[in-house]
Design goal:
With about 140 residues, the protein is of the alpha+beta class. Helix content is about 20%, strand content about 45%. About 20% of the residues are buried.
Length: about 140
């Protein structure tokens, strides 16, 4: 008898300041034979554009047990809100889908951006308080 389902899909943090980003999924087998679900994690940015896909393979769950699997996403660069969708399917079981959202805010580019904004606002305030713009008569 094949019986089982996806019980959990999560990340360890809602905000990531550095990479890689870790995903954890739990699959439960309530049947009398082993299961080998396959699938993928699709990662989309805030605009709904697919950024990356992580395949789910070599996941074997023995009968009447559950298994937790960790997968990692190592992007070259990521900034903003992302949505990860896990899709799994097994031989005779219906496919299952779970989604989650997380933020990727790498500390170095974010801090550089904050410093640049601060310096620009300081320069504008400095020059506007020192100089006056007049129209020639």
């Amino acid at each position: 008898v094949e019986a089982g389902n996806l019980t959990d899909f999560k990340t360890s943090l809602p905000f990531y300041w550095k990479f890689p980003i870790d995903f954890s999924l739990a699959y439960e087998n309530r049947g009398t034979v082993h299961l080998a679900p396959r699938g993928k994690i699709t990662i989309k940015n805030v605009f709904g554009i697919t950024v990356d896909e992580i395949p789910l393979k070599d996941l074997y769950i023995l009968r009447e047990s559950s298994r937790i699997r960790e997968l990692f996403w190592k992007p070259k660069f990521a900034l903003g809100r992302y949505t990860a969708t896990l899709e799994t399917q097994s031989r005779s079981l219906p496919s299952e889908t779970m989604s989650l959202s997380f933020w990727a805010l790498p500390i170095v580019p974010v801090s550089i951006g904050v410093v640049i904004i601060f310096l620009l606002s300081f320069a504008v305030q400095f020059f506007s308080s020192r100089f006056e713009i007049r129209k020639n008569a």
